[in-house]
Amino acid sequence: MTAPRLLWIGTYTPDSDPEAAGSGIHRAWLDPETGALSGGEAASGASGPSFLAAHPRGGLLYAVGECEQGTVSGFAVAERDGVPELSGIGGVPTGGASPCHVLVHPEGRHVITANYADGRVSVHPLADSGAPREAAAVLQHTGHGPNPARQEGPHAHSVAIAPGGRHILVADLGADELRCHTFDASAPEPVGPLSVAARLAPGTGPRHLAVHPSGYIYVAGELDSRVHVLAWDAASAQAVPVAEAAASGHDGPNHPGEIALSPDGTRVYVSNRGADTIAAFEVTAGGAGLRRIAETPCGGAWPRHFALAEGHIVVAAQKSAQLSSLRLDADGIPADTGHRLTVSDPACVLPA
């Protein structure tokens, strides 16, 4: 019998922006054999921990505080009487508003946050304890798009490591751009000057990215409901659009949320808010193309985020206040297991 897989769940809380009913960072367990979900209780109080990330060496967790005055906080993971617990090790301001994404750099020396409301990106060195320090850089941008309700200014929605590992990419939903900075974790000032790696079609609304080992980048367009394929050129630090595909076959309004690559690089998965589905795409042409091969109801409303774990996709259905699990078959096609777990206003799923 395979042991249950621990999942950390980020939520919106009464003091976050937006306000909601979560209690902080929750914990849950996934049964790898059945897809059953259990637990769901709060492991640590926190204000608006809507996105979580783990340190590569283990034992440390980071959460944004998605509030008007944004923060990023660190937590140490330990067990008490066999139950995983979180204890805060410190938090600092991000220098921006409503941080919605946090990335731990692969070298483990910095955390980087995307602040949605004002488009700023903050870079925080980590202390020896793993606690985030005051920002070494707060990166501001300008720009806007054609959607007056969503693109009146820059809105940094996520940060990713570009192919090759020498740059960070920022998906700016408000400006329809992938912003780019060189990044050297060993340097006293790790962040290089701003460039624009890609300008996407007006109204795309780039949200989250997935990076293929072959060097292609997949961008979820929150506003145009499409998945965009870009080819990365390391010499110029440019990403050139080469293909795109509809994120869903749904006829009504739809806003893609998370996008993720299967461990073997043959499938891309996208959550669709509106359609309330998980779409599966076959990676074609060595990474340069995508073909939608399935679209499966996710088991809840408004799948803001999901994670791949133990042959399953675990979905944070924000408006249903629940998690759901989908089993992946041998072809990478998801099917609903029927298992649900109540968690108030889930926004992120992070397998431990």
Automatic annotation (TrEMBL):
Any Pfam family hit: Lactonase
EC number: 3.1.1.31
Keyword field: Hydrolase
Highest taxon of source: Bacteria
GO MF terms, alphabetically ordered: 6-phosphogluconolactonase activity
InterPro entries reported for this sequence: Cycloisomerase_2, Haem_d1_sf, Lactonase_7-beta_prop, WD40/YVTN_repeat-like_dom_sf
Entry's family note: Belongs to the cycloisomerase 2 family.
UniProt protein name: 6-phosphogluconolactonase
Organism this protein belongs to: Streptomonospora litoralis
Upper taxonomic lineage: Bacteria, Bacillati, Actinomycetota, Actinomycetes, Streptosporangiales
